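HOLO CASE FILE
Compound: alpha-D-ribofuranose
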Amino acid sequence: MTRRIILDCDPGHDDAVAIMFALGSPDIELAAITTVGGNQTIDKVTRNARGILALCGREEVPVYRGAERPLLRQVETAPSIHGETGLDGVELPIPTVAERPQRAAQAIVEIVRESEPGSITLVGTGPLTNLALAVRLEPAIVSRVREVVIMGGGIYEGNWTAAAEFNIWVDPEAARIVFDEPWRVTMVGLDVTHRALATSDVVDQAARINTPTGKFFVDLMRFFRVSNREAFGFADPPVHDPCTIAYLVDPAVVVTKAAPVAVETRGELTAGATVVDLRAPAPANCNTRVATQLDRERFWELVLDAIARL
Ligand code: RIB
Ligand code: CA
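Model generated. Tokens follow.
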């Protein structure tokens, strides 16, 4: 059954792969892209989202600009990982379609309101500022959204600090709002996405696709490999964000379990940490699930198949 999604993202090299994965998957309908400041400023990530759609020939997908900064904290970007443009290492075509006039939170509310109850899945692959603003703007979306799936957090791992993952760290107050609402939230965290490594074999397979989108993936990974090696010591870059799409396309690829998730917003050393309570059994009313395993081979098979379809 097709999953109709709104993808809230901060492209970003791995967000770009998630966008292509969603566009090329027959099981996904990308209803809209909303952008949020994160990997780079809101201007840059919004331009990048439009450029990726232009490269894929899919500018019919509407783009809505989102929050310029976190709810309370200052803007923090990640040029060490994604470069000054947010997509260093690749050339993007000039988009021909403008971003839509509505802002992201407003667009999320309007699309959810206009859609059948339970038909829209919100996918967040950046800081969760827009999703938090949307649920504060219209609390009724909680009962109408099918599921919220986010790339963020970690059960045992951090990356931006020892305790926190970047998306949550940038706006922990927004993340707390999203996790604390009574909708179904699935957290695809670093414990799983650190296994989604773009090895040279994966990149070679992408090069053999021999299309502009296949080349785009190869170029993305060339830069992402160097930045992740220099910043985190990875031999191969972890491609975090498309793991959310894989979970929607084939839940067997991303194993999850029910577990309460709380977000630390006050810790001097632990702000942005996702505190996952794995004590069994999970409470009967637990509305959150966390990803625990990834079938890496099947994951890359799905990603590259989707890119080849574009
Ligand atoms: O920590 C990894 C996450 O932060 C990914 O979504 C990456 O794109 C950045 O947004
Ligand atoms: Ca991202």
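CASE NOTES: The pocket of calcium ion (ligand 2) is lined by residues 9-10, 12, 14-15, 38-39, 125-126, 241 (CB under 6 Å). The radius of gyration is 17 Å.
CLOSED: yes
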